[in-house]
């Protein structure tokens, strides 16, 4: 089996070889996505349901496009507006879904662990599109593909992840993935936004951008997740920008060819200077979006292969 997992719930259960399998297949989909006729049929006849219990623009669009390009029947369920508000439990949602016979289920949920729980109750392959502060595996995979293409490798790089680490599932998944691939990960942010015990993950922790960015190959900025804060984490956005916002002066401390990343959506002028975000010589933010579609196509292709062989058995 090319990819020995029934679901993609996080980076944690993946072996380095699994990560490489997804990225290598995604490379093929990058080529397909750049061609005139962007269509494959590996998901033909399969039903993909996207359930986003939390707002999303690029991730949901990216999963929808990925499914459609591979020939799946794709349906989006607007979960914020519907059952969650009416108090339906996750178990009821799972039962409803099972009755619809989906093959691929893409879920984003505000609670950490909710997607894992759902995966135990439904009879299809589940992809985690972000659960609370826990994991966002396809984001880390698309970041990895972007880094591998820009730097020519995905090992022995020095990567700084900066900003609101505490509330970020993107940071968690990236720390796990980059660690498994034997990179040096530095976390930079104010102590109030740094989770307790994070150093156990084999990362170096800095509260000063100038110290942390010294000589890094990759600068990954994170959004200040105001919706997950109940006040008091930062003195003011101006002060935050001054100390932790990525501007030309701070970027100059990283390696001269260091790339700048951001998962989006960006708060320009809060965690990143708009000009740096738009600088095509340094910023790979648009590449991240492009790689996102390809990585999601690869992940769904591999999970569908497993699903088919399990059902045939
Ligand atoms: C991230 C998320 O939702 O976790 N965004 C995304 O998936 N593109 C990061 C964020 O919201 O800041």
Features of the shown structure:
313 residues; alpha/beta; 5-stranded parallel β-sheet; 4-stranded parallel β-sheet; 11 helices; 14% strand; globular; binds N-carbamoyl-L-aspartate
Bound compounds, please? N-carbamoyl-L-aspartate
Strand order of the largest sheet: 7-6-5-8-9
Order of helices and strands: HEHEHEHEHEHEEHEHHEHH
| Major beta sheet summary | 5 strands, parallel
Class from secondary-structure proportions = alpha/beta
Shape: globular
Q: How confident overall, as mean pLDDT?
A: 94
User: Radius of gyration, rounded?
Assistant: 19 Å
Taken as a percent bin, the fraction of beta residues is 5-15%
The helicity comes to: 40-55%
Instruction: Note the total helix count.
Output: 11
- Enumerate the spans where pLDDT stays under 50 for 5 or more consecutive residues: none
Question: What is the rounded distance between the termini?
Answer: 13 Å
What does this protein look like?
With 313 residues, this protein is of the alpha/beta class. Helix content is 40%, strand content 14%. The chain has 11 helices and 9 strands. The strands form 2 sheets. The protein has a 5-stranded parallel beta sheet with strand order 7-6-5-8-9. A 4-stranded parallel beta sheet has the order 2-1-3-4, with helices on both faces. The radius of gyration is 19 Å and the shape is globular. The relative contact order is 0.17. The mean pLDDT is 94. Bound molecules: N-carbamoyl-L-aspartate. N-carbamoyl-L-aspartate (NCD) binds next to helix 2 and helix 6.
């Amino acid at each position: 089996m090319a990819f020995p997992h029934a679901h993609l719930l996080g980076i944690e259960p993946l072996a380095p070889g699994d990560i490489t399998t997804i990225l290598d297949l995604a490379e093929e989909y990058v080529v397909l996505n750049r061609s005139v006729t962007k269509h494959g049929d590996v998901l033909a006849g399969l039903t993909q349901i996207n359930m986003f219990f939390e707002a999303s623009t690029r991730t949901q669009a990216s999963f929808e496009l990925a499914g459609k390009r591979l020939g799946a029947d794709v349906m989006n369920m607007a979960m914020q507006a519907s059952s969650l508000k009416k108090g339906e439990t996750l178990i009821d949602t799972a039962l409803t879904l099972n009755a619809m016979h989906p093959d691929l289920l893409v879920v984003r949920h505000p609670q950490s662990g909710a997607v894992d729980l759902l995966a135990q109750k439904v009879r299809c392959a589940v992809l985690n599109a972000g659960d609370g502060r826990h994991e966002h595996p396809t984001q880390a995979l698309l970041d990895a593909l972007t880094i591998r293409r820009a730097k020519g490798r995905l090992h022995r790089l020095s990567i700084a992840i900066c900003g609101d680490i505490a509330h970020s599932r993107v940071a968690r998944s990236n720390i796990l993935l980059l660690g498994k691939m034997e990179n040096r990960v530095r976390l930079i942010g104010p102590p109030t936004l740094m989770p307790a015990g994070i150093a156990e993950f084999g990362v170096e922790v800095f509260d000063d951008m100038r110290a942390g960015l010294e000589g890094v190959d990759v600068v990954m900025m994170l959004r200040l997740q105001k919706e997950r804060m109940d006040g008091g984490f930062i003195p003011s956005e101006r002060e935050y920008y001054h100390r932790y916002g990525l501007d030309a002066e701070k970027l100059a401390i990283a390696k001269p060819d260091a790339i700048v990343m951001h998962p989006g959506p960006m708060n320009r002028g809060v965690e990143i200077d708009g000009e740096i975000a738009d600088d095509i010589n340094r910023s790979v933010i648009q590449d991240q979006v492009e790689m996102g579609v390809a990585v999601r196509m690869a992940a769904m292709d591999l999970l569908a292969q497993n699903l088919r062989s399990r059902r045939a058995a």
